[in-house]
Every structure is written in structure tokens, then in C-alpha cells.
Amino acid sequence: MKSKVIYSWKTNDEFTVISGLKSESYFTHYSALYLHQLSLQIPKTIYLNFEHKSSPSNKRDENIVLQESIDKAFQGSQRKSLVSFSFLEKK
């Protein structure tokens, strides 16, 4: 497994350190609920997401979403990231 070293100064707060994994990333799922004080329980897994750059489209109007496209997207199994990090015994 490939390691990544992140240096922090004057903090060992896991959310601060983990946010340094990827620029322009954001916390999602239960992690975001906790950070926005919508849950008092500390999450066991911290979710950090970043958007992939989409490839240029040749479609004339890419803001139109067809129901068949939505159905096709949900036919397969749910995506799961192959990337994970551990920090202070958390994943």
C-alpha cells in the first residue's frame, strides 16, 4: 500500500489533518453532519470527497437529464472507492 505523509503544525485534529489529503476536497456523509453539529456522535469513518474533472462533452445541451440515463446509472452496483487512508486508528 502506498503511503502519504502529511505534516501539521500545532494541531493533531483529525479533520484538519485529513482535509490536507486532497486539495479542493470536502467532507461528506456522517462526517459532514458531525462537522456541522447535526450529530453529537463522533464518526468512526471519515468521508472526504473530491470531484473528478469531467471530460468535454459533444452534447448540445448537457443540462438535460433523461430518465433512461438515470435508470441506467442505478442499474449497476454502487461505486466504492478503492482509496482509503488510516489516521490515529481511524479509516
Number of strands: 2
Residue stretches low in confidence (pLDDT < 50, at least 5 long) are: none
Based on secondary structure, the structural category is: alpha+beta
- The helix-strand sequence is HEHEH
Strand order in space, largest sheet: 1-2
Shape: elongated
Query: Sheet bearing the most strands, described?
Result: 2 strands, antiparallel
Strand content: 5-15%
Calculate the mean pLDDT score and round it: 80
Give helix % range: 10-25%
3D structure, described in words:
There is one protein chain. The chain has a domain at 20-51 and 85-91. It is built from 3 helices and 2 strands; from the N terminus they run αβαβα. With 91 residues, the chain is an alpha+beta fold. The chain is elongated.
